[in-house]
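Holo prediction. Input below; ligand is calcium ion.
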Amino acid sequence: MKRRQFLGTAGASALLTGGILSGCGQESNPTAAGVAPQQQKYQWKMVTTWPKNFPGLGTGANSLARLIGEMSGGRLTVKVYGANELVPAFEVFDAVSSGTAELGHGAAYYWKGKSEAAQFFAAVPFGMTAQEMNAWLYYGGGMPLWAEVYAPFGVLPAAAGNTGLQMGGWFNKEINGVEDLQGLKMRIPGLGGEVLKRAGGTPVNLPGGEIFTSLQSGTIDATEWVGPYNDLAFGLYKAAKYYYYPGWHEPGTTLECLLNKQAFEALPADLQSIVSNACRVANADMLSEYTARNNTALQTLVNEHHVDVREFPRPVLDKLRVISEQVVAEIAGQDAMSAKVYESYQHFRKQVVAWHDISERTYLNVRGD
Ligand code: CA
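Structure of the complex:
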């Protein structure tokens, strides 16, 4: 009896928050209907912040849903809804929290209104890359903190994708100095948006589906979205002239799967394991896909659409980095949870930078074309 109590909720949460080997068995409870959990079929909904079937992000959500269905032999099937099909993009978190949908697919920086600390689990300007984020989340204490941030809402998080390093964005004028950011109305979410604001610009938060029209009509002057693969799909090259890099504001954005805690914990242990490990597969798979498809999309943008690809001038990046450090540090002062996450993130970042300075950075600089 003691063992069963111990393995209850704690065991279920460990599947999502711990390392891959840490999940331990949970004895299953018979359902109210008296059907053994191994025979019971579950039909879940997944709401997403992405346009339906959008390359990489929407299709990443589709893949995750399909994988859960396949791995469970059809015992747990997931129907995916694009943004606005069941709920609007920015209501995905609430929908999962309330149980309107059992699963959600989005990015944690969309939920800074719920908790400032959420932003650390998507992207931090001048922060960690995809590889470093995964290391922090799975083996550096990140996942348990993420679970703690969402706990008051009855939501469990799982990393479920990563775009890799993004692009700096699309501009209709050259950015030659910090002064060119003055008054710039740019779609840029999260912490990057706050940094732009302090550099003199006006950040706008728009869901993906509204970006192209807003840029083309002049409602916004500039936008970032993701990288060549997704930006090509949106046709952003038709609405802006210059394509700047690097994506200082999103150096390796983690996408998330949100799980309604109650629904997850009501699953038998094997289905819980399937859901959490399907998220792991989806997380790794999306990064592989982005890395492969960004290559070819960049060639298409340059060779077929004659996009002017530019590097931000170093003084602009230096200025943005200084502001970023202030902005990120200020979040830590917002509340105790944010301070805790900031401390963990910064501690890990410092260590991984020391290692990657002598490994990845040195190698990339010397390996040649
Ligand atoms: Ca972005």
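The CA atoms of residues 42 and 76 lie 5 Å apart. That is the main takeaway for now.
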